[in-house]
Amino acid sequence: MAADWSPAAGPWCSPRPQRTGRVLAVVRSGDASRSFNLHPEPRGSERQVLREIMACDRPGHWLRAQQLLQSLLEASVQPSAMPYNVLVSACRRAFEWQRSLGALSTMKSKGLRPDVMTFGSALSACEKAGGWKAASFILAEMQTSNLPCNVIIYSSALSACEKGEQWQKAFGLLAETKRNGVELDTVLLGAALKSLRSEPKRSSWRLALALLEEMRRSGVEENTLVINGAASACERGGQWQQVLRTLIEAERRGVETNVVTWSIAIASCCRPVLWELALLLLACMRPRAIAPDVVACSSAVSTCSSSWEVAVGLLGIMRELHLRTNTVTYSAAMHACEKCSQWEQAIAGLDAMTQVALKPNSIVFSTAITACNAGHRWQGALALLPAMRRQGLKTDAPLLVSVLNANSRGRWVGSLSLLRDMPDKLLTPDLRSYSAVLSARVAASWSWQRSVSLLSNMLLSGLEPDAISWSEVMDSCQRQGQTSCVGQLLQALNNGNILALCPAAAL
Q1: Which of 15, 92, 486, 504 gives 20 to 30 Å between its CA and that of 49?
Q2: What is the mean pLDDT of residues 312-323?
């Protein structure tokens, strides 16, 4: 007899259990993404907490993972290594490297053995923060535990040394990697190259080129970062020929170069005789579909110290390319004007900066004052000091010396006034300050008594006049016919009793 499947047929009409209803609802809707959690666990159970911890391995959830793990420990539940791995990884994503190490320590204190994943996450956290000491400790722990150290582990440790400016440690790890037979890759060697930026003697370019050559012999693929690292090391070492060789070889091998590569090449041509080569490199970027940026153009401007017209012209090209100029760019162009004794153009650079809403800094003002000094324009140098104060900038001793040098040639009264005002600005006049004022002895209104008075003030200030200062004082006396004073100065100099001869006087 066939079964009756109608709704009124006996047991088929009995109430469905709740979980059965959920299953049938999913089947009816065809939505396979709905959960078949037929046996829901009570909230707060061990398995539920562990599942919540596993879901915390993403940015911003390390604190939640830590709280959940602590709740298990307080409930006397001994979790496995996996929740600790999740906590270490979550701390790594949040750049909380100290907490990663704390979780690793807690794990070991509970008798659990960290695995490669645990150590790898802790190493990566240290690498992001430049914690090279902690990274070295973790690597030593792995080796003590006889865990395999692969190229990823060594790359993290080496990168931590690079960020911590420990290039010698980085190359030590590189040598250890090769001794242990670990296959080198681009990431590892690229981090070793980047670590050379902290080498203080600027002789790292040989190491960089040797490492690049080893990569090519080993068949390790080069990339843009590797080429930039090698070129940067050569640029810091003043090896512009090697920078260009690295650039040419990269293009020959088909390695992609970018604006950073070409900016390094341009910056390497910092010698005055190479400014044309720097402009040629800048021009070569456009055919390669590499758009020059403010760094590349600023580097090119810096190389034009012997041609101020080209430096100022490059600023115009930057405006045409809609590149945003900065204080460094204008400072480089003004430096070129100063080197070429174009003091008017240097001061015009200050005005141009204000027109593009750039605020000149002390370096820019110092360049303009030095340009006025070179052009014997003491009025311009003196006028820049109030402009600095209006910008809220402080004058320092070297800057005032530049003003004194320019001012003493035409207006020695102003030089004496600046010299007197230096203590009020909490600046102590040094030997250069006095020498700059003494150089005004050639002025017709200068008196020999002022030279002697300046010499006395130098001695009372604890300064030891040099041969030039003595010569200027004696020349001042001799110019005004005070030959007897010259003899007395020589005698006092031999006896070491110059203060008794010329007591300090008001300047």
Answers
A1: 92
A2: 86
Cβ atoms < 10 Å from Cβ of 277: 17
Domain final residue, candidates 148, 169, 192: 148
Question: Does 169 score more than 70 pLDDT?
Answer: yes
Q: Choose the final residue of a domain: 148, 172, 200.
A: 148
Token pair for 334 = 């003004």
Q: How confident is the model at residue 264 (pLDDT cuts 50, 70, 90)?
A: very high
Q: DSSP secondary-structure letter at 443?
A: S
Burial class from Cβ neighbours inside 10 Å (0-12, 13-18, 19+) for residue 90 reads buried
User: Contact, 97 vs 91, CB < 8 A?
Assistant: yes
For the CA atoms of the chain, what is the radius of gyration?
Answer: 37
3-state helix, strand, coil in the chain (%, to 5): 70, 0, 30
- d(Cα 199, Cα 190) in Å, to the nearest integer? 16
Under 8 Å CB-to-CB from 204, ≥6 apart: which residues?
167, 196, 233, 236, 237
* Alpha helices, H only, 57-185: 62-74, 81-93, 97-109, 116-129, 132-144, 151-163, 167-179
Domain membership of residue 104 (yes or no) is yes
Q: Quick check: 190 and 170 in contact, CB under 8 A?
A: no
The region that residue 106 occupies, defined by phi over 0 for left and psi between -120 and 50 for alpha, beta otherwise, is alpha
- Tell whether 500 is covered by a domain: yes
Say whether pTM exceeds 0.85: no
CA distance linking residue 186 with residue 162, whole number of Å: 15
Q: What's the number of CA atoms in the CB half-sphere (13 Å) around residue 402?
A: 23
- Give me the pLDDT at residue 464, please: 74
The residue with tokens 């456009």 is 286
Burial of 112 (0-12, 13-18, 19+ CB in 10 A): middle
> Domain range for residue 429?
400-507
What whole-number distance in Å separates Cα of residue 218 and Cα of residue 212?
Answer: 10
DSSP structure string for 151-203? HHHHHHHHHHHHHTT-HHHHHHHHHHHHHTTPPP-HHHHHHHHHHGGG-TTS-
For residue 202, tell me if it sits in a domain: no
According to the model, what pLDDT value does residue 482 have? Answer: 75
| Residue 290 belongs to a domain | no
- b/e map of 476-488 (b: 16 or more CB within 10 Å)? bbeeeebeebbeb
Q: Count how many domains the chain has.
A: 2
